[in-house]
Write a structure and sequence with these properties.
With 356 residues, the protein is α+β, with helices and mostly antiparallel strands. It has six helices and 21 strands. It is 17% helix and 39% strand. The longest helix has 18 residues, at 88-105.
Length: 356
């Protein structure tokens, strides 16, 4: 009969590896769910004992059942009752940070779903980690282009994105600082570069109006942001862009300039300039009727036809430097004027007040 061999504890540990390893705070361990109770979850850790997931994490682990395999982080190696205090949330977060940092290093595109919004951007949870997608990192399609004072409308636009899947890239991540920042712009920039390359000045494009502000209209052209400046909306003088378009409208426009991030567009250049036809009826020296539309220190502007505005220069109102146009003209009054000069190339008409 063979003689039994006695093993020392060190030899047993070496032979059986981690099966006898004592749990240490900070370790990640695997186990099997023994029971799921209202205020606690017990986990079989094998030779390392029984782990306890406390009450505060039960709601986080509500989908667990007896027999499920779980991964947890050791918070306390041995409590007074002999249990190993575990955290499933921390294990998920630790694993989540590993995934996040890997995707950041590889510049991967990920799908995120915002769960809330504030005026600064969208709140996101990804791989168990809370993150943020700032307004400035939204694409042209989603950026809330409204007046800077329209704070409630900005928030309303951002809230419309809550629950929707957005493709994004991780812009910045730090486990130590618990910082996770996403960018939708970064996720689509490669595709935008290809689209930009296909466009040229003079092209006619279609787009959806994403914002109407005092100085113009923002348009989403297949993911590229375009701006129709107020001066390019119509051949007539535009006071309020919202009189011409509203958010959600589909418009056609002509590309008049291209830079790295935005298209400059014109709506008016797709239609014939009415100024050209209307000015044909004017003759130098002839008398015209017109309505005073603006009064400035250097003279008064007069609308003499729907598309033609002319100027009565202060020098035509009398001699001396103390002539005040506001004392001579009244806004919206209608008067008779004499055409002094017609500059078709410069699109300028000069007038004087017609003598009675």
């Amino acid at each position: 009969m063979a003689k039994a061999t006695k093993l020392t504890m060190d030899e047993l540990l070496e032979k059986n590896g981690d099966s006898f390893k004592k749990a240490v705070a900070g370790d990640t361990v695997n186990g099997t769910v023994l029971s799921v109770k209202k205020h606690e979850i017990l986990v079989d850790l094998g030779a390392q004992g029984v782990g306890l997931v406390p009450r505060r994490e039960v709601s986080f682990s509500k989908n667990l059942n007896e027999g499920d395999e779980v991964t947890a982080s050791v918070i306390e190696a041995e409590m007074d009752d002999g249990y190993v205090l575990l955290s499933l949330r921390k294990a998920v977060k630790d694993k989540g940070w590993d995934e996040i940092l890997s995707k950041l290093d590889n510049n991967e595109t990920v799908d995120i779903t915002p769960f809330d919004a504030n005026r600064g951007g969208l709140l996101v949870e990804y791989e168990g980690i809370r993150g943020f997608l700032p307004v400035s990192q939204l694409s042209a399609e989603h950026y809330p282009r409204v007046g800077s004072s329209d704070k409630e409308e900005i928030l309303q636009r951002l809230n419309s994105l809550v629950g929707k899947t957005i493709k994004a890239r991780i812009l910045d991540a730090s486990k130590k600082e618990n910082k996770l920042i996403f960018s939708e712009k970064e996720a689509i920039k490669d595709g935008l570069a290809a689209r930009f390359a296909e466009l040229k000045v003079g092209d006619t494009v279609k787009g959806v109006v994403t914002g109407v502000v005092d100085f113009g209209v923002f348009v989403n052209v297949d993911g590229i942001e375009g701006l129709v400046h107020i001066s390019e909306i119509s051949w007539e003088r535009v006071s309020n862009p919202s009189d011409y378009v509203k958010v959600g409208d589909t418009i056609e426009a002509k590309i008049i300039a291209i830079d790295k991030e935005r298209l400059s567009l014109s709506m008016k250049q797709l239609v014939e300039d009415p100024w050209i036809s209307e000015v044909e009826s004017l003759k130098k020296g002839s008398k015209v009727e017109g309505t005073v539309t603006r009064i400035t220190p250097f003279g008064a502007f007069v609308q003499i036809s729907p598309a033609v505005e002319a100027l009565v220069h202060v020098s035509e109102l009398g001699e001396g430097s103390d002539v005040d146009p506001e004392k001579i003209f009244t806004l919206n009054e209608r008067k008779s004027f004499k055409v002094l000069d017609i500059d078709k190339e410069g699109r300028k008409i000069s007038l004087s007040v017609a003598k009675k």
